[in-house]
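Posting for a labmate who doesn't have an account.
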Amino acid sequence: MTSPAAEPASDPTASDAVPADAAPVDAVEPAASAAALAGSPPADAPPATGRRRFGAAVWAALGIVYVVWGSTYLGIRVVVETMPPFLSAGVRFVAAGLLLALLLVCRYGPGVLRASRAQLASAALVGLLLLLGGNGLVVLAETTVPSGLAALLIAVVPAWVVLLRTAFGERPGRGAYLGVLLGLAGLAVLTLPGISGEVRVWGVLTVMTATLMWSLGSFASSRLPMPGNPFAASAYEMVAGGVACALVGLARGEQRGLDLGAVSARSWTALGYLVVFGSLIAFTAYAWLLHHAPLSLTATYAYVNPVVAVALGALILGEAVSRPIALGGAIVVGGVCLIVSTERRG
């Protein structure tokens, strides 16, 4: 889940804002995504109704989000081949958060990071839910769960968000509820004992727990006081989530016996890729899209990312795509498509 990680801001996931109908991105997109997940488009976002023509910049940004965020699951899988899960996640998010903060200061000055105690506390809480509970658990699960299957399981996030919105008095619409049912049916197919070959049940349950944590963080972020600048909010979220991941890794004893010399070159490369491309470039593209394209169009990454992840896992890592996984994944993606199309009409 990368990150993402995050999206524009004061909304939920300004760092990883995901439309109420969308699925989590990887990690660094915490803030922005959350906002989107919560279903609250930026005030200046263009209307999603009517036909519009989009320039090359919009499609280029969308392509980055499609491919890069979809590839982060593969990146995580390669990282944990020779690196401990939580410590590697901690390094990734702290590095990305500090780099983002540095870029913001260089571009806008130190004042861009100004935030009240309440805003900092909210950003830290959202970062813990999204990056420690959401992405951190995905990293842990990918020590045994194929990257493609993890992406398919995570695609169910929009369904959880619809249920959370309902619990708080909102009425997403019949189409959204049907999408939830389809998503849960697909989830059942993906998680039934024995259908996924050698995949351990605890790994699948860990990913499911991660989707709930991500959904809670995304939903809560739209209802908490966040830093005024969405990118600053994302930086705070990433640093808080990264520090928490590192502390959990130390508590689990991941540092014992850790030999940096034994870490493979491909794991280091994958970690660098996640920091730069997954957490900074893709996040920036997503945040830009939230202000220059309809939320309904931006939300389509929710059902493209899993397809990209499965394809890359099969092509590069040789991950098997069994019939149950293909069927369950298709059902989940179909449910997400229905939720997104319903929100678009709404």
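Reply:
Got it, the structure tokens are right above this. The two ends are 27 Å apart (CA to CA).
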